[in-house]
């Protein structure tokens, strides 16, 4: 895990990044700025249980590609989940909190993941473990409020103007952050490479 100090605000941005692209960088930049983060951990996962059966590039390749596009020095590309044999986000968040007391973490995800968030292993536990920042993605702006997660935790939604203090809030707490959006997607990039 990257080194952090107590009282830092740190964002956790996890994904398979298969491959990483400028849209991921844009989400990271928006999160750093809007959430007033000291660091953002770009967590390259060994695999995604919800995407089993899909072809995935080797972990070392995805790390190298992520490092090449994550140019802000506050972004720390890491793949610590592989070392701890962690498979599910709920376990990742519990591990991170246990090993870094006194650090204020926030989970970051693109709005395109919100529709399926209720299919994640122990998704309610995730929302009760750490504040969540949902970053706008193309095609997801208007549909996010109809998601199971948004309806279930409607009472815990924080106005976007308070995003800079989200990391200090007691979960459940989440916000939706608007901003520039990239049309790039890993799925489309993989499809183009095959074509």
TrEMBL record:
Lineage: superkingdom: Bacteria
Pfam families linked: CTP_transf_like
Record-level Gene Ontology MF annotations: nicotinate-nucleotide adenylyltransferase activity
EC number in record: 2.7.7.18
Keyword Transit peptide: no
Reaction it catalyzes: nicotinate beta-D-ribonucleotide + ATP + H(+) = deamido-NAD(+) + diphosphate
Residue intervals passing through the bilayer: none
Major enzyme class: transferase
Domain Cytidyltransferase-like, first and last residues per copy: 12-191
UniProt keyword terms in alphabetical order: ATP-binding, NAD, Nucleotide-binding, Nucleotidyltransferase, Pyridine nucleotide biosynthesis, Transferase
Similarity field: Belongs to the NadD family.
Purpose of the protein: Catalyzes the reversible adenylation of nicotinate mononucleotide (NaMN) to nicotinic acid adenine dinucleotide (NaAD).
Classification via PANTHER family: NICOTINATE-NUCLEOTIDE ADENYLYLTRANSFERASE-RELATED, PHOSPHOPANTETHEINE ADENYLYLTRANSFERASE
Designated name of the protein: Probable nicotinate-nucleotide adenylyltransferase
Species of the source: Neoaquamicrobium sediminum
């Amino acid at each position: 895990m990257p080194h952090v100090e107590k009282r830092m605000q740190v964002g956790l941005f996890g994904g398979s990044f298969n491959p990483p692209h400028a849209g991921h960088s844009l989400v990271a930049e928006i999160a750093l700025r809007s959430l007033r983060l000291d660091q953002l951990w770009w967590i390259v996962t060994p695999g995604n249980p919800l995407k089993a059966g899909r072809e995935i590039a080797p972990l070392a390749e995805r790390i190298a590609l992520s490092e090449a596009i994550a140019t802000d020095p506050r972004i720390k590309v890491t793949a610590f989940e592989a070392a701890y044999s962690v498979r599910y986000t709920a376990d990742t968040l519990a591990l991170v909190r246990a090993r870094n007391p006194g650090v204020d973490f926030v989970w970051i995800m693109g709005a395109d993941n919100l529709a399926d968030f209720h299919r994640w292993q122990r998704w309610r536990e995730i929302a009760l473990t750490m504040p969540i920042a949902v970053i706008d993605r193309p095609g997801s702006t208007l549909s996010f409020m109809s998601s199971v997660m948004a309806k279930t935790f409607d009472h815990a939604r924080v106005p976007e103007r308070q995003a800079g203090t989200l990391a200090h809030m007691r979960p459940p707490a989440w916000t939706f952050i608007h901003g520039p959006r990239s049309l790039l997607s890993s799925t489309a990039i993989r499809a183009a490479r095959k074509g």
